[in-house]
## 1
Amino acid sequence: MAALSSIYGKYDCANASTYAYNEKGERIFVGENGIIRRWIDGSNIKLWIDENTFRDQMEANQAYDATDQAAARWTRIGSQVDAPVHFWMVSPPEKAKVVMRFSPNPEKPTWIASTLLPREGEIPLWIYPRFFTYGAAGQAGILAHEMGHIMGLRHEFLEPALSPKFQVGPINPTSVMSDTLPYTIQETDRALLKVFYEMHSSPSEDFKFEIIPIDV
Ligand SMILES: [Zn+2]
């Protein structure tokens, strides 16, 4: 997969765009400004793809397939389903927590996709034209990364002084939340996600974050 990596290069994820990221640590990072928002453990996050926003049915179908694959990558370990949060594709839209839409986004041609950390109300998951320059495996990896954000994970490379965060677990140089494509969810990503969702109180004296579980 090294060849693919050099083709894909750096991932320009819009979630990072408001932060400097000169730190190349590789960990799972969560929380911002003293607050960690995550879903209630065991939540089913309903995701609706607004296919009418896509340029054609072929691209909408690619979005469906990549979403299916990304959700399966997060939740399946071998044949077992074992994850604190599950994604479900739904219709009609009023039941959805996450709404995926296409946007031409001409001002930011390098962006691939963007979304938000856990919060009340609808969470948009934007797909931009550059997303469709990747093959099926790359698209699934990109959505796995975006689902990481939706579950509360931040980038491995945020500047801590600009945006305080909390590190869960040891260094992992290949995390799906790093900035190099193609993305692969690591066993440590899944394991640390579970640790994250089992956290209810301060694990150390240095831990200054308040944890807010949100109901979907
Ligand atoms: Zn990102």
## 2
Amino acid sequence: MQVAVVGAGWAGMAAAVTLAERGAQVVVFEAARQLGGRARRVTIEGAALDNGQHILVGAYTETLRLMRAVGADPDECLLRLPLELRTATGFRLKAAPLPAPLHLAVSLLTAHGLDLSDRLRAARFVGRLRRDGFKLPKDASVAALLVEHGQTAPLRELLWEPLCVAALNTPPDHASAQVFANVLRDTFGGERPASDLLLPRTDLGALFPEPAARFVTARGGEVRVGAAVRALDAGADGVVLDAHAQPFDRAIVACGPQHASALLAADPRLAGVARAIDALEYEPIHTVYLQYPEAVSLPFVMLGFTGGLLQWAFDRGALSGQRGLIAGVLSASGRHEALARPDLAAAVHGEIAVHLPALPEPRWKRVIAEKRATFSCRPGLVRPANRTPVDAIVLAGDYTASDYPATLEGAVRSGVAAARLVLG
Ligand SMILES: Cc1cc2nc3c(=O)[nH]c(=O)nc-3n(C[C@H](O)[C@H](O)[C@H](O)COP(=O)(O)OP(=O)(O)OC[C@H]3O[C@@H](n4cnc5c(N)ncnc54)[C@H](O)[C@@H]3O)c2cc1C
């Protein structure tokens, strides 16, 4: 079977690997010059960095499985830490070295920076979700869920809202409580390793897309970069792509949602799917790289910030040996979007400097703004399925229907599901 995969993000490469494993002839078409899509390597000041600092968790089982399959050993490429959330102001929650679910209950009950009544409230909230199988009677906003379960301002500000924004990339007032509960189910509600933090030690290209491409080509497939597909024509002979004279038996459209919609809209049978995609709204993610002298480091590799603009700061020296380099992350929409990039970088430096005495000025600063980083994960959102009304055309991407928010794992699972549909 000959299959075209349009888009070499994590969904497209997961689909291509799954197809190649099963002996299908795969050609991947990627518009950009490099692989990885929204999780890719960028070169800044001569250093291999990422278009945005990413974090994975132990619950990303399909991503970890495929990384192993293509020869990217997760034990080497990722720093695995038992769940630990720390803020610069002293809040600290650390998974206890106990079997699940005690590891989480004890971590909530022993968290630093919250009073006992709040710790009990948080534990009761998670206990209640667990008893209900993490299924809510009806979807609402995360903000409403937290109020309904009596989560106080310190709990919301130090624990739940940062988790919501990090996982769903959507402000709590608009974020889906059910998807948030799904994330808690798979990370906190599973076995202890599921809640582990997995922080990339390599750039994102080397983590999966590039070894995946080598895996596909070693099995007779092709991965073409700088090869944008502008039209798809599905007829009796298969699917013809503008970039390829021969029809393919099937095509997996693994572009980001806005590009997928443009490709699908031309076929009247797919106009409904294109409209569903067009209804999605988007959220940005800003990453601020600050290169300090080499001696500068953070007290913990991933440090939370509250009350300002910055949400998380990552010590790239501790992660990947890029000493003195700090990556600041600002997820979702917010007042930081109104700032010009130099002002945003200066503000993030200022917020870190409050907590790191004698922090020198950075040697260089760089802001990467991904305006459409993910879809906005709203309550009751209807997302398109992998299967479309045209059998020969299948969708893959982080935005397709699933109980995950837009994440690497959501993209990989969608790619694997699309490939399995094609393989029948
Ligand atoms: C800054 C940032 C930080 C993030 N942080 C995290 C995180 O910490 N943890 C996490 O799990 N997730 C995170 N995410 C989300 C994660 O990166 C995405 O969910 C995931 O990468 C989406 O992959 P995808 O394959 O579905 O889509 P994409 O990555 O968008 O891939 C689509 C590909 O299709 C290509 N393409 C588009 N049109 C065409 C065409 N016509 N022809 C050929 N190719 C085309 C594009 O160039 C692209 O390479 C983050 C995202 C961003 C942007």
